[in-house]
Amino acid sequence: MRLGVLVPAGNPTIEPELYRMAPASLTIHFARLDTLAGEPGGVDGMVERTLRYLDSLPAAARSLSAVKPDVVVLAHTAVSYLTGFAGESALRERIATLAGTRALTAAGAILESLRHLGVRRVALATPYPDVIAKAGRVYWEGAGLAIVAHRQLDGVTNIYEESEERAYVLGRAADARDAEAVLISGTGLPTAGIVERLERDLGKPVVTSQTATLWCALATLGVKERVRGYGRLLAGSTAPFAPRAVS
Question: What is the side-by-side order of every strand in the sheet holding 27-33?
Answer without folding.
Answer: 27-33, 2-8, 71-74, 102-105
